[in-house]
Amino acid sequence: MALFGIKNGLKIFGSEAEADVLNGTSDPSQAAGISAPLGSLYLKSDGVSYKKTGAADTDWQAYSEIEGGGLLWSTLSGADTAVVSEGYVLDSSSAAFTVTMPAAPEVGDTVGFAGLGDIETNNVTVDLNGLNMNGSGDDLVIDLNYCYFEMLYTGDATTGWVLSNTDESGNVDNIQAFIGNDDNVDSAVTEFTEENYIVGGDALEDAIDKLDMALADTDATASGAGDDYTALEARVTTNEGDITTNEGDITTNEGNITTNATNISTNASGITALETYTGSAGASAPDYNQENYVTDGDSLEEAVSKLDAALQVVDDLATTGVNWRAAIEAATGDAVLTGVGDYGPTDHFSDDDTPFWTHDDWQDGDEVLSTNATTSGIIYTWNDGADQWVETDALEANNAVSVRYDFLDAPGSQEDGAAYMMNADETEVIKIADFDLENAASIALSSAYDSATASGTISSSDSVESAIEKLDFRADASASDISALDARVTTNEGDIITNAGDITTNATDIATNASGILANDGEIADLEAAVGSSTGLAGMDYTSTDYVTVDSSTVDAISALDLGLSTLDTATTSGIARIDTNVDNLDTAHDNLAAAVLKEATTSVAGSATDEVLDTVPQAGNLGAKWFAIAYDGSGNRYACEIYAMHDGTTSADLTEYAILTIGTKLKIDFDVSANGTNMSLTADNNDSTSVTIKTQRITVQTASVDTTAVIS
To answer: Does domain 72-174 have CATH number 2.60.120.640?
Structure first.
């Protein structure tokens, strides 16, 4: 693979002299030859290369056969179609543009690309022209400054083009988006810094997709809770207004009682009927003692109707969503053997003998969920006496079940637990959670984490940490709002109790005056209007729903509905607490991945300085490290490379430097690595007299797996 292209006039600077790199169609050792400094390189069009070995113009010696002679490089600043065996320096300083790949490449055809310093701002798109790249038909977007890579056509229609360094420098498609690089200047690229539902085998992009969907679910839940808080606050405000109205009504009632006492003489039977349907025996006070949502100004019929409707709405909300089945033993995607005697002492659950559990490990009554396409959603039970698996149940739409062991298709990939759900059209069983996240203990948020000011709505441009900060901010705000609402509700309840006492006193006065009732049909009519009817719910404009029937007394109905609604209110508070716990788990899970995967450092190295330490890696727990390094001075000169180093655990360490790029005058930087048994250090010597700045990004290769998970309940 060519690391750089050759054009007339390119100079090679060595320790001995300056040499030219030339190309052409003639043999430089024949006829008049070609004049060039000693040590120069000449590439003939037929692929033969020559070295200048003497002073005469014909002193050229052929020393290698090179297929194709490398890439021919040129600068491209606008839309064009690429040509095989050519490389393009992409100048997007004016605007973004698109390069179209060749339409009919052959096996081994190569095209190269190198990006300048404006490509993060003005991206360059590589149109694959109907072919694939790395097995995908998606066009390639180049958005990383100073990147370099080559594309080679494999001749395979499925694979298509392949990238030369996707496993090395990772310069394509902006690796910063996958490892949470805060140096990424493109605000539209998600800064990935943590993970939740990710399993050990996930690719970085798959991991980000899972997190994005999980956070969207959490955000929707939090938004719904916010709507509930708003509705609750509105109801509290209404209650406070009603309390004020009731206090005025109480004063009015006291005056009316004095007036009525002189006129009451008859209709004792009407009073008795009212007492029966309002829950009071004889002339005693009603035994109503639940005061949560009903106001003093409501008639009895209004109170019953409001509470019944409210309880129905809350109950409907509480019963929608996923129905959970009792936990079972395992799940597997393999086909199921259900014949009698299909299992010997060493046989297994599946028909491909993947070594999950042997026959002797299954207990009578153990249940297994099939995720196989043929039997998806069916639950099988082991019948020890019959020595076979029996189909006993199946998941229905929106039903979910948790399993203690998650048996995947490949040996060695057994996981400790998971949750599965049948989709709405009952065509597929979907895994919705893993409970075996291997590394949950060490994930943490970054030191810059601050939820105190992280207001706003989560968007696609947020990093994972930013999304968590916003959720945390909303959760704290919600908790504060709930606290304030709770205090207001407590105050309101006290006022309602006080009002209830006043109403009880008034009722006693009415009972005292009852012995003098002789007339006042008009007054009785007013009372009937206040409670809806003189014959209770049976005579009202009331339609029974789920909680109150026409046979209920009014007070009994209000008491039952009010108590039920209060219980559901408590359950809602418990659900909000679970959301807060999950957000805390996300907080706990944040920084470990970023800390384990990437570290940045910027070091100023004075002119002629030696052994300047750029970065230090603890030897304990780390086998080695890889650095992306860029050195630059104040004159526009840049030197970029990749460095891979490892140590033996004591004082021996070594490195390799590759993927070197230079812009302007080559900076004379030498890198080295050393170990002392405790730390491995990357150092640099500056062999120029002027100072340079060296920026490094480091990825460590750790001894143990990085804990990158968190449990969401």
So the answer is: yes
